[in-house]
Amino acid sequence: MNTGDNIFQKGLKVLEITGLIIISIATVIAIGQEVWVMVVNEKVALSDLLLLFIYLEVITMIGIYYQKNMLPVRFPIYIAIVALARYIILGSKELNPWDMLGIGTTLLVLTIAVFLVRLGHVKYPYEEDK
Q1: Any idea what DSSP says for residue 104?
Q2: Residue 44: count of CB within 10 angstroms of its CB
Q3: Domain residue extents for the chain
Q4: What is the pLDDT of residues 86-117, one digit of tens each?
């Protein structure tokens, strides 16, 4: 490799770590804000817990990305599933039947996607997973 490529790769690594730090800090701040809202309201709703779960998934995703230098496809899908469940819980009274059917179908497709990704990973593991 020449020096230019090496400098470029190091620069990308610095940007990557900086991005991870910014996302981590923003997620921790968001968790603190959500906990503060629950304390002020003196009430914890299911939608609050699901939002905290989404934040936890983001932190887990950051940790895995930092450790393995790759992002498992399943984690963003998990986040999408929880986000859709939270959306249904928050807006179930305002949603019409077609919206509910669309969201339910999306949840089913995402769940099948997680199953297929997991099945593929078990049947055809990466070389370092064997």
Answers
A1: H
A2: 13
A3: 1-71, 72-130
A4: 888 887 778 888 988 999 999 999 999 999 99
